[in-house]
Amino acid sequence: MKLQNKPANVITLKKGLEQAEKEGYALGSFSPRYTPMIAAVLRAGQKANSPLIVQISSKELVRYGITPKEFADEFYSRIEAENITVPVVLHLDHTKDMAVIRDAIEAGFTSVMIDASEKELAANIADSKEAADYAHSKGVSVEAELGMIGTTDFVETDKDEELYTDPKEAEQFVRETNVDALAVSCGTAHGVYMVKQPKIDYERLQAIRSLTPVHLVLHGGSGVPADMMAKAIRLPGGGVSKVNIATDLELAFLGSLGREERMTNEECRNLPADQLEKGRAAVEATVLDKITNFLGSKNMADRFDF
Length: 306
Fold this sequence. Notes:
Zn(2+) 1 binds at residues 94, 190, 219. The chain is an alpha/beta fold.
């Protein structure tokens, strides 16, 4: 879908995060992982009158058997069919390949994430700047990552290393890349917390924010206590403005069906209608809970000016 043909309420990440930081809440970046669950995320946002982000990572696309175009087409179809009017961002999460980023932008994504965090600083800057230059030329926002965010399930990323973000490097990185948002490593991890428990290095967050005006992103939002997240969002001078939530949604979906094993997107699409609706209801309830009790974004949709 070409940029000029997008519904007015489908916005860029930059626009969404500017408003979130101004109002003191965070946008939930929800990954439904299965295309039939996109509707559930959007319904929750509409019911809560909340802006939100619908996302999927490059690795999730491969694991669940989805193309960027299939995901985007379902997103825009549901926007129309469900009469969604709240502000929504369509975001491509962790991606290392510029070809996938180009495909996503062509498909109608309004935000992309380049993840070269495993590279040395100079190479990360070079890759992130390339992605930012290209995306900005298409009117699309860009998120990048500095430091390495750990994982427990290897669904979104393929590394379990963790390297905290250096505030001084963050200042240089943002200045030289011109990215719109920065995912920082400060104690959270992708996946389910089992042995290791989540923590947030608030002093590190504040130090990063004091050196750069870029909007901050916290990955690994599933399983983080609400009070811990609230403090990170409301740090003086601007805290976290985007929180990624993926695992909690899939666990709610599978749990509602009495399943533990993940399925492919095709398997999900072929579920009986009653099971699909049961799964959607569980995902919708989870998103509503996060919006209301975790992110502080309920009833913030009306503050946007399209």
